[in-house]
Amino acid sequence: MTTRTRILTGITTTGTPHLGNYAGAIRPAIVASRDSNADSFYFLADYHALIKCDDPLRIQRSRQEIAATWLAGGLDVERVTFYRQSDIPEIPELTWLLTCVAAKGLLNRAHAYKASVDKNVEAGEDPDAGITMGLYSYPVLMAADILMFNAHKVPVGRDQIQHVEMARDIGQRFNHLFGQGKEFFTMPEALIEESVATLPGLDGRKMSKSYDNTIPLFTSAKDMKDAISRIVTDSKAPGEAKDPDNSHLFTLYQAFSTPAQAAEFRSELLQGLGWGEAKNRLFQLLDAELGEARERYHQLIARPSDLEDILRAGAVKARAVATPFLNELREAVGLRSFAAQVQVAATTKKKAAKAARFISFREDDGSFRFRLLSADGEQLLLSRNFADGKAAGAVTKQLQSGQELDLRTEGNAFGIWLDGACVADSPDFADASARDAAVDALRIALTPAQD
Ligand code: TRP
Predict the structure, then answer these.
(1) Domain coordinates of the chain in residue numbers?
(2) For FRET with 403, which of 54, 71, 276, 389 sits at 20 to 30 Å CA-CA?
(3) Is residue 186 classed as helix, strand or coil in its secondary structure?
C-alpha cells in the first residue's frame, strides 16, 4: 500500500481573493491537488479570521467569496477535502488539549504576538494593550488544524513557517506525554513554493491588499480592466523600445501566458509596442484565462445554498477522520467513559486469551506432551504424557472449549482433571498466592475469545 502525502492548508477568511492570491496560492494548490499521490485538505480558516476581524458581515462575505473562488478555479471536491474550520467541532476541542501542553514560553516567542508587544512598548503603552487571547493562542489553533489531520506537508507563506514549527513542537510534546510509545501526531513540514512568483501589484511592489495595489480576480471584467489601466509604467512613448525585464506589466503577463506568448509579447515590447496597447494585451490574456472561471464564480455566489451544501459535505468527510481520532486522543488524556472501563477489562482478557499459547512437543520415549504458557510466557501447565499427537490435541481442544474446569489444588500446585484423570499439572509455586494468581491467569488464558 502506498500512503499518499497529506497536504493541508488554511485560508484566513478576511478578504476577497485578488490576482496575486490566485497566482501565488490558489492556482498552485489546485494544481497540486490533482497529483495522484496527493491527499489534499484545504479549508477556510474562519476561526482564525475572528482573531483579526470583528466585522461579521465581512467574515461572512469573505467565506463565501473564498469558497466560490477555489471552486470556480477548478478545485475538485470529490478529490480533495474542502471544508470550513468552524464546521469541525473537533478542532476547538483539540485546541484545548494542545493548549494544556503548549508551553507559554513558546507562544511568547511567536512573531505576530511579539510584534504587537514591541509596538505597544514603543508607543509607551502596556505591553499587552489590545492583545487578545485569540492572537496569543493563534499558533495553538493552527497546530490543531494541522495535527488533527496528520498533515505531512503544509504549504504556507514564509510568515507562517514559525507556526508550523510550533505545531511540531506542541505535537511532539503531546506524543511524548500521552503516546506511551505511540506517535499520535505526524510531524508536519512547511512547504514553501520557491518557484511560485509573488505577483507584483499595480505599483510594482508585491501585490497585497495592504498596499492597495491589487488587481481584482473575479469581480468583473470591467474592474479588472480598470485596475490594469492603472498599472504604473515608465513614460516611453509608442514606438520607443520597452524593457520587458524591468516592466512588472510584463511580469504579470508572463505569470498567465504560455512561454510562446511571453516570447512574442517580449519582442513586441522591444519593438516599441505602446503601453496602452500592452495593457490591452494583458487584459485580453487575463480575460481569456480567467473569463470562464469568473462565470462559474458568479454562478456559485448567486447560489449560496449550493455552496453551503458543498462545504457541509466537505465537513462530513473531514469529520470522518477527525471524530474517531479525537476520541482516541480523549482516551489518551484520561477523558474516558466510565462505562467503558468494563470493556477495557474485557479487551485485556481477550488479548490475554489470544496471547496465551499451547506448545506441544515430543518426549524421547515417543510420547506427546504440551505446555500452556501465559501471555507473559509463564508456564501455567505441563501435560501428562499422551500416546499420540491426536490425544494431546483433543485435550488442548477441550481445555479451550469453555467448559467448567476441574481444577484440584495440591499444596502450592494444582492439577487439571478431565474424565476422571489428571491431564496436566502446574509447576510448584512459591506460595499459595502465587498459585492462586496462576489459577486466575489460567482461567483468563482458557476463556474463549468473544468476537
Ligand atoms: N495562519 C494561516 C495564514 O494566515 C492560515 C492558516 C490557519 C493555516 N490554519 C492553518 C495555514 C493551517 C496552514 C495550515 O496564512
Answers:
(1) 5-199+303-333, 218-292, 357-446
(2) 389
(3) coil
Q: Is the pLDDT of residue 178 over 90?
A: yes
For 51-95, how does the pLDDT look when each residue is reduced to its tens digit (9 = 90+)?
999 999 999 999 999 999 999 999 999 999 999 999 999 999 999
Alpha-carbon distances, residue 426 vs 141, 323, 371, 383 (angstroms): 58, 47, 10, 9
Is 155 a pocket residue for ligand 1 (Cβ < 6 Å)?
no
Judge if the beta carbon of residue 396 lies within 6 A of ligand 1.
Answer: no
In which band, very low, low, confident or very high, does the pLDDT at 36 lie, cut at 50, 70 and 90?
very high
- Higher-confidence residue of 266 and 405: namely 266
Ligand 1 mutation pick, 7, 82, 142, max ligand atoms within 8 A of CB: 142
Q: Which of 48, 98, 186 to mutate to test the pocket of ligand 1 (most atoms within 8 A of CB)?
A: 48
12 known member of a binding site: yes
Give residue 11 CA to ligand 1 midpoint distance, Å: 6
The hierarchical CATH code for the domain 5-199+303-333 is: 3.40.50.620
- Ligand 1 and 49: CB distance under 6 A: no
Write the CATH number of the domain with boundaries 218-292: 1.10.240.10
pTM for the structure as a whole: 0.76
C-beta neighbour count of 170 within 10 angstroms: 26
Is 90 exceeded by the pLDDT of residue 400?
no
- Give the C-alpha separation, 151 to 130, whole Å: 33
* Average pLDDT of the residues of the chain: 93
Amino acid (one-letter) located at 70: W
Whole-number Å distance between alpha carbons of 29 and 41: 10
User: pLDDT digits over 374-394, tens only?
Assistant: 877 888 999 999 999 899 999
351: pLDDT strictly greater than 90: no
Q: What is the DSSP string of 287-319?
A: HHHHHHHHHHHHHHHT-HHHHHHHHHHHHHHHH
* pLDDT of 404 higher than 90: no
Q: Using a 6 Å cutoff on CB, does residue 12 contact ligand 1?
A: yes
Nearest CA to ligand 1 atom 6: 10
The verdict on the CB of residue 90 being under 6 Å from ligand 1 is no
- The one-letter amino acid code at 127 reads P
What ligand 1 atom has the least distance to the C-alpha of 145?
12
Topology of the domain comprising 357-446? PH-domain like (2.30.29)
Q: Per DSSP, which regions of 16-125 are E strands?
A: 38-45, 81-84
Distance (Å) from CA 341 to ligand 1 centroid: 39
